[in-house]
Amino acid sequence: MRAKSAGCLTRSIAALLALAFAAGILLRLYVPLWVCAAVAVLGALVCTRVIQDKPRSTLGILAAVFFLGSWRYDVAVRAPTSDISRLISFVSAVQGAVASDPQTTGAHTSFVLLVERAKTFTGWVHATGRVMVNLYADCDSAYMRHFAVGAKLAGTTLEYGDKIIMRARLYAPSPPTNPFGFSWKNYLSRKGIYTCASISHREQIQNLREQGGNALVRLVLRGRRALVDAIHRVYPSPENSVIAGMILGTYAYLPTDVLRDFCRTGTLHLLAASGYNCWILVFLLNPLLRWIKILPKWRWVAIIAALIFYVLAVGGKPSLVRAAVMASLGLLARFLKRAPDAKNLFFVAATVILAIEPSDLFDIGFQLSFLAVWGIINISPMLGAVKMLRSAGIVGLNAPRGRKSTSLLVRKILAGLGATAIATVSVMLVTAPVIAYYFNYVSLVALPANLAVELTVPLVFGAGLLSPVATEVLSYAGTAVTRIMLQVVSYLADLRFSALSVPSPPVLAIGGYYLLLYSVLCWLKLKVGRDGTNK
User: Fold this and answer.
1) HSE on the CB side for 437, CA within 13 Å?
2) Mean per-residue pLDDT of the chain
3) DSSP at 252
4) What CATH number does residue 127 fall under?
5) In the prediction, which pLDDT does 72 show?
6) How many C-beta neighbours within 10 Å does residue 198 have?
7) Residue 478 maps to a domain
8) Is 0.85 surpassed by the pTM of this model?
9) Residue 253: how many CB atoms within 10 A of its CB?
10) Do both 160 and 176 map to the same domain?
11) Which of 134, 275, 447, 496 could cross-link with 323 by S-S, CB 3.0 to 4.6 Å?
């Protein structure tokens, strides 16, 4: 009982710290930093006066964390004095290192250039900052789409870490023409980028053939290229683009019709870097490490290292970082012989991500990822999964003699399908308003589509990882499974009412929806125990 109380106390502290840090970031988005400081001090004083049963030190810590969130966001979005954006009108060329993996979308390739110096009318001067470069040159776009990395310039390949000299006109990103529309300028500023450049000729970029950046990241990205190359060599199109996208957590390589099918069925999140990718990686690695007789504690360490490697290969997307942090902390707890608490890890992961990159609070992937996990952790148990499965005759049945193993396997499969369905419903309940707000659609076939696709994703994921050593049998099996998945998604997407187009709901309406959902959950919590049985 004491351990349970201590766990609840730790969980509440972690939640309060995460919420205070996020609230500080949110307030700084609209008001100056000195106002945030005044709000923190005033809030601490008022709470100290009004709430008598709370320790004053706790309120002071929360106020300090609130201001820390505001200060961290202020630092992240403020351009330093040496930033290249302050020299836009005087720069004719810049020198720096490619700081991101070049990606091709449509007819252009984009990458981030980490500036080292700039050329003005007085010569080369020291400069810092980042430039978002859009490359519209006559590069080999087919190569880019195929290998998903590198831009061929003058017979060489532009990769992460390459030092280059770029001769181009710099410009500041434009604000949105619609005041309520997506702001590319704000998006880039939250990433610490205040300058853009467009390249239309190969000769504008000179590769210095020097290496910068992180050596480990370069190694990981080369391994990624080799894996994608093997996938395209082993599997036919369009299955190879789906397999590569599923492993790398991106849908940039998908054909237009396939992308449309995944959007209409509400399964596009399975092709994005998310917690499901990390779960599959752990699901595949754990039995493999057990089979080669790795001790449990070192097994967890090896899986953590694999998760870090995977994040570096795919990219530090908020949803993937969230999953990797939660999984790594959970495995670390097992290594230290401690019981991990999912709710506690949830808030710790949020605090870690926002401390590193506070602008991720406004990232769509961050919002949907944390909403989905919150739904799985908090709503799924309240739906009474165990009771529902038991009442349906799936769990707790006595198998006839001679058929125990078969009956047990069937019950496990049905129980897994039931749990997956409940988790999917939980995720849909909390993410539907946000999806409607950003993407203006609501999928009506998301439940059957997610059930069908989620069962095939681990098989597709494993087939892709094994592609460098794939045999003809594995190639046939991986292609068949992927093709079946695509056929199911295409069939559901082609249904007349598979998805509804909706306008973006007002923010107040979204807030009212979540308030109503919270009220219903509180009522369910009174009626349903933690194990899914009535009190």
Assistant:
1) 18
2) 78
3) T
4) 2.40.50
5) 92
6) 15
7) no
8) no
9) 26
10) yes
11) 275
Question: CB of 359 within 8 A of CB of 185?
Answer: no
Q: H or E segment at 195? A: strand 195-199
Q: Residue 144: which of 97, 99, 110 has the closest Cα?
A: 110
Over 50: is that where the pLDDT of 11 sits?
yes
Kindly state whether residues 65 and 92 are assigned to the same domain: no
41 and 106, same structural domain? no
Q: Using one digit for the tens of pLDDT, what is the confidence trace for 44-66?
A: 777 776 666 556 677 788 888 99
- Among 492, 489, 491, 486, residue whose Cα is nearest residue 460: 486
28 & 71 share domain:
yes
Residue 244's pLDDT band (boundaries 50, 70, 90)?
Answer: confident
* Residues 206 and 173 grouped into a single domain: yes
Residues with Cβ within 8 Å of residue 241, at least 6 apart in sequence = 253, 254, 255, 258
| Cα–Cα distance, 159 to 221 (Å, whole number) | 9
Using alpha carbons, select from 149, 171, 148, 169 the residue that is nearest to residue 159.
149
What is the number of residues in the chain? 535
Tokens of 200: 């239309």
Range list of β-strands (E), 235-291: none
424 contact partners, CB below 8 Å, separation of at least 6:
446, 447, 450, 451, 454
Structure tokens at 75: 């630092």
Q: Count CB neighbours of 512 within 10 A.
A: 13
Per-residue pLDDT band at 531 (split at 50, 70, 90)? very low
Domain count, the chain: 3
Mean pLDDT, residues 75-98 taken together: 87
Range of weakest confidence among 67-71, 101-105, 164-168:
101-105
153 confidence band (pLDDT: 50, 70, 90): very low
Radius of gyration of the chain (CA): 25
Give the pair of three-digit tokens for residue 380: 């799924």
Spatial distance between the Cα atoms of 170 and 160, rounded to a whole number of angstroms: 21
| DSSP count for the chain of H helices, then E strands | 18, 13
CB-CB contact of 457 with 280 (8 Å):
yes
- pLDDT value, residue 407: 66
Looking at residues 283-308, what average pLDDT do you find?
83
Whole-number pLDDT of residue 23: 92
- The bridge status of strand 130-135 relative to strand 195-199 is parallel
The answer to whether residue 163 sits within a structural domain is: yes
